[in-house]
Amino acid sequence: MTGLFIMRYEFIDFSLGSRWTLVATLLGILAPVGFMQAIGGATGPVFMAQGKTSLLLKFGIFSTVIYVLAFILGSSWGVVGVAIGYLIACVFVTIPTIYLAQKSLGLAYLATYKSIFPSVLWALLAAAFVSLIKEYFLLSKVMFIDLTLQTLIGGSVYLIAMFYLAKPYFINIMKR
After folding, report:
1. Most CB atoms closer than 10 Å: which of 22, 53, 65, 147?
2. Nearest to 69, CA basis, from 87, 81, 58, 85
3. What 8-state DSSP symbol labels residue 93?
4. In sequence order, which ranges of 106-176 are alpha helices (DSSP H)?
């Protein structure tokens, strides 16, 4: 998601053309939504496995109301307003969802955030590196080459950071 966020304008310009710039703006708004849903989406099976489907139903109704209100309020500002409303609604839905799942599992509230922090850090490091390369070093006038280089550089930085920063975790896993 961070890679697509950083390269959204170039990606849309290359894949759809310059007339689709609004889609790049929407990607910029919705990329954080994808990140939140990747984390919050895993909570449904937790509730089902623990036999708390009534809680899942109630929270589903609550979420639906929040999303519909966000869409209605955002629609006054067009498609960008709807996307922003959806982003805000996701924040208001994801945080309590994770909290309820953690409480249901008996986990400390910060446990989930502590476990995902390294991945977020690596992604932000890769995004910062790609942004710097994009801004100061990419001299190609061929968009496909620039996109390919940015993707390879970002992926490489992410993997290298993951290996070096998470080395103790890998060593621990290999010992088992």
Report:
1. 147
2. 85
3. H
4. 109-136, 143-165, 167-175
Shared domain check, 41 and 88 = yes
Task: Give the pLDDT score at 174.
Answer: 65
Q: Which residue has the higher pLDDT, 109 or 90?
A: 90
- At which of 66, 82, 107 does a domain end? 107
What type of residue sits at position 61?
A: I
Q: How far apart are CA 126 and CA 30, in angstroms?
A: 19
Co-location of 32 and 117 in the same domain: no
**Looking at the 3D structure of the chain, how many domains does it have?**
2
Q: Which domain holds residue 8?
A: 1-107
Q: Which helix (H) or strand (E) holds 75?
A: none
**Pair (93, 112) in one structural domain:** no
Contact criterion met (CB below 8 Å) for 96 and 89: no
| Three-class DSSP labels, 10-45 | HHHHHHCCHHHHHHHHHHHHHHHHHHHHHHHCCHHH
Report residue 40 as tokens.
């919050």
Burial classification of residue 30, based on how many CB atoms lie within 10 Å of its CB (0-12 exposed, 13-18 middle, 19 or more buried): buried
Name the domain boundary from 84, 107, 130: 107
Residues 81, 100 within the same domain: yes
Q: Is residue 36 over pLDDT 80?
A: yes
